[in-house]
Amino acid sequence: MPAYRFTFLMSGLCMGAWAPLVPYARSRTGVDDGALGLLLLCLGLGSLVMMPLAGILNARKGCRFTMHVGIALVLLTLPLLATTHSFAGLMIALTVFGAGCGSVDVTMNVQGVMVERATGRSLMSGFHGLFSLGAIVSAAGITALLWLGASPLLASSGVIAVLVAFVLTYGQQMLGRSGDEGSPIFVLPTRKVLLLGLLCLFAFLAEGAILDWSAVFLADVRGVQHSIAGLGYAAFAVMMALGRLSGDRILLKLGARRVLIGGGLIVIAGFVMVVFANDWLLNLVGFAVIGTGLANIAPVYLSLAGAQKTMPGELAIAAATSLGYLGILMGPAAIGLVAQATNLSSALLAVAALMIAIIFSATRLVPKVSPQRLH
């Protein structure tokens, strides 16, 4: 497997490592739900701050350097996330860990666009499928080791070992600098890039809604046992990974415009099934449908951001990713406020309504070209 594909897999491993450790970190620090929300906010803020800086580093120092910086931050903080008992220490560690994940996230997308430019092919969906696969493997592997009785530190050591092995092997083969010698280190995002970032925000917000609220919906609204309420996100994540791994072939056949329109419609259908079908098994199908529809929306937007000519591609990707990440950072909290004012079903339908903007903007954002190319 070429190094640039491993880049996406490693990024997924980083992102998936924290989720199984959350209950243990909460137990060690003794925090309540509000304090846990503050900790999760630190994770998102660290990523959000680092993403624009990662765009600059990619342009000036290269993808290899920036990826190694991000992985170094993850390696530095992951053992702390598995062992620290201090609330303040956990806040600092999560912020730095988020910065590392943000750096790796931007770098993988810059690397992906560089490969797309070099090959003239649409490859981003398949790359993001590897990211999803890495996150699933990381979270499932750590969870399995914890279930077998391993300590959080021992359970996370496997991810640490794989990241170190990547840096020493395939990490040395990554593509170099993405920017020209005279390219600027900062450019205000253009209107097109801002629009792409906003639409990424909608897609990421929907993803964050399933991540943070699917189990709550199944448990509180449908009365499902807490021990199996996580099946909603599992169904979503698996279908998203499968959709992304096959996304390049879908794009080749249908083109980006149809993928965005069709994906938006499928997501709406999935949310409608979740909200209006009273059988929780049908709700699982609905979550799977949402994952199928969302799978290739964000990769298409990131590919378009890297291909546009109004600003340097690596800076455009950093801007679109940063804006999009606000959806994961702020979206779940916004859903909570809407749910408190109305109910959770209405809040989920409001998320589905955001897909209308994705559907109707597709004809303007994506030129009418042959399906083989996004740009």
TrEMBL record:
Topological relation to the membrane, as annotated: Multi-pass membrane protein
Gene Ontology terms: cellular component: membrane
InterPro entries in the cross-refs: MFS (IPR011701), MFS_dom (IPR020846), MFS_trans_sf (IPR036259), MFS_Transporter (IPR051788)
Keyword Nucleotide-binding carried by entry: no
Residues annotated as transmembrane: 37-58, 65-82, 88-106, 127-147, 153-172, 193-216, 228-247, 259-278, 284-304, 316-338, 344-366
GO MF terms, alphabetically ordered: transmembrane transporter activity
PANTHER family attached to this UniProt entry: BYPASS OF STOP CODON PROTEIN 6, INNER MEMBRANE PROTEIN YBJJ
Name of this protein: MFS transporter
